[in-house]
Amino acid sequence: MLGLFDSQIGSRHLDLAARWLRGMGEGFYTIGSSGHEGNAAVAAALRPTDPALLHYRSGGFYLERARQVPEVDGLRDVLLGLVASVDDPISGGRHKVFGRPELSVIPQTSTIASHLPRALGVAFSLPRAAKLGVAVAWPTDSVVVCSFGDASANHSTATGAVNAAIQVGARGLPVPLLFVCEDNGIGISVPTPLNWIAKAYGRRPGLEYFAGDGCDLPSALAAARSAVAFVRKHRKPAFLHLSTVRLMGHAGSDLEAAYRTPAEIAAEASRDPVLRTGLLLVEAGIRSPREVLGLYEDKRQRVREVAQECIQRPRLKTREQVMSALAPRSPDAVRSTAVAPASPARRSRAFGRQLPEAEPALTLAQSINRALLDVMAADPGAVLFGEDVAVKGGVYGVTRGIAKRMGTARVFDTILDEQTVLGLALGAGLSGLLPIPEIQYLAYLHNAADQLRGEAATLQFFSSGQYRNPMVLRIAGYAYQKGFGGHFHNDNAVGALRDIPGIVIASPSRPEDAAAILRTCVAAARVDGTVCVFLEPIALYHTKDLHEEGDGGWTAPYAGPEDWAGAHVPVGRAATHGDGRDLTIVTFGNGLFMSLRVAERLRHSGIGVRVVDLRWLAPLPVEDIEREATATGKVLVVDETRRTGGVSEAVVTALVDMGFAGTIRRVASEDSFIPLGDAALHVLISEEDIHHAAMELLDA
């Protein structure tokens, strides 16, 4: 081994090993000598300005990077996180995560490799942001690094991220991304097949492969430096495979003796990287055995002293403290941003000969299209992407023509993988861009919902607002859509979205509202870092007539910038149609279309109805609901989503919570998947269902 050092590594790396033992022995104790300290070598090979997305065994990486930034005490950071102190510099006591902006470490609470698509998004977006002239937090020649274990490498999220990185590279686009797999040969109790990682990732075209011994710091450093140099020079993805050990069980409740033999446990212990580093220093004559043990005990004592200090630090004590970083709201600043248009010159370049306010009345799809152009004209960092959104212009033509007007750097197609679409958005938001991704159908979101729940929605919460995920996610949805596969793909299940803390869910139905609501979502993303979901009812995209006579009623002129202030739609504010005193109908989406038709029938019978369009499914417009419910004392909630977990449950609960003393009924779609063709009408609400429920309520 000494010969390897002398001939291939050199004395500089032995000196580095000595410095690590002096400065990072504390780190080995802090993370319980997990056997993953080879990631410290990765940190040493990188710059402290290279963005890092680390899994939970990356204590060695964090401490080595902190050592490179003298004003940061990495050991104290880690211990403050372990005791959940409000002084923890990244999460403020909300979670034990590795993260700090001064170290370019982005905190992760990864639910098994869920941070890999985001890492790809950062690597993809950094050069794109520079091309667009958007300021970013990291140098343009940065290498993005993400770490994960061998068991996580089998997860679909990980394999999808690696595949997407290779695909992007194959198109000739820069992807400066380093995947670091720390392979300890076991996932809790399930062993990884021998040489599985090398076989699975070592021969992938378009993915440069590097390997090193993570228990041998000089070997790990040599492999890491080669990998980093490749990525930085070629701007292509690489895979660094570090063989490691896992000392002790996976977690506190895990007894490894239940599934590992004494011989296996002893063999792992013999590879302890702390012990092996000490032996290397002794063999190289850098330290004597006594000096190595002295350093070891000094660090043990240092950890104990700092831990005792950290235990005394304050913790979160109120719900307000816990939730302060979850979803900040700045309505005045959002309004100012939302109603501020691009300059006349930029709008003219975006729209060409005819501005949208000079066009005839527009449909819902056309209104969204023009609003997207207005948003992109006003914000040079806004990027629009997803499956088929660019060349084709979207499955339903909503984004048609935008790529031609805004260019392929800002409007582009992605591969057929929703986790990648959302991962690109997560990385773009971190890189200074304003991502507007599209998921083709609501049913497709479920493949990648954790990118919203576990990644996007948690980032501000677990970083005390120091990192943000601005995003406006457009989803074509709801179930009233005829045609091949339409019903099931569109879906009517929004419970998984509404259950995510902090996100905003917009549901525009009418053309006159859609543009204003979209501008509000974009402004909230820019101002507050809000994660917005913009649910678009497919069946209403091209609808023109509300009335059976075909005399219009579902198209509207596009408001010019001079009218934006008056047309602004704040987050969480509903719209009321009509002023009847007999019945209040609360609804949204396609339910609005049907409810307005029912209201017209009821008015012909002398019954006064007011129809409340929620417009926002989260946060619900509870003040508007209460006001309009009180005006009539009778409320019918019309919910096209499912009876269980649907929006109506929340509306009825809100009415009960506010002490509404009137009569409440609801009509909702059945707890069923959506079949094809006319069979769907048996499980979805209809105008007749709404009319029948209204008459029953009025008779009650």
UniProtKB/TrEMBL annotation:
<dbReference type="GO" id="GO:0000287">
    <property type="term" value="F:magnesium ion binding"/>
</dbReference>
<keyword id="KW-0560">Oxidoreductase</keyword>
<dbReference type="Pfam" id="PF02780">
    <property type="entry name" value="Transketolase_C"/>
</dbReference>
<keyword id="KW-0816">Tricarboxylic acid cycle</keyword>
<feature type="domain" description="Transketolase-like pyrimidine-binding">
    <location>
        <begin position="362"/>
        <end position="543"/>
    </location>
</feature>
<dbReference type="Pfam" id="PF00676">
    <property type="entry name" value="E1_dh"/>
</dbReference>
<dbReference type="InterPro" id="IPR033248">
    <property type="entry name" value="Transketolase_C"/>
</dbReference>
<dbReference type="GO" id="GO:0009083">
    <property type="term" value="P:branched-chain amino acid catabolic process"/>
</dbReference>
<dbReference type="GO" id="GO:0004591">
    <property type="term" value="F:oxoglutarate dehydrogenase (succinyl-transferring) activity"/>
</dbReference>
<dbReference type="InterPro" id="IPR001017">
    <property type="entry name" value="DH_E1"/>
</dbReference>
<dbReference type="GO" id="GO:0007584">
    <property type="term" value="P:response to nutrient"/>
</dbReference>
<dbReference type="InterPro" id="IPR005475">
    <property type="entry name" value="Transketolase-like_Pyr-bd"/>
</dbReference>
<dbReference type="InterPro" id="IPR009014">
    <property type="entry name" value="Transketo_C/PFOR_II"/>
</dbReference>
<keyword id="KW-0786">Thiamine pyrophosphate</keyword>
<protein>
    <submittedName>
        <fullName>MFS transporter</fullName>
    </submittedName>
</protein>
<dbReference type="GO" id="GO:0006099">
    <property type="term" value="P:tricarboxylic acid cycle"/>
</dbReference>
<dbReference type="InterPro" id="IPR029061">
    <property type="entry name" value="THDP-binding"/>
</dbReference>
<dbReference type="Pfam" id="PF02779">
    <property type="entry name" value="Transket_pyr"/>
</dbReference>
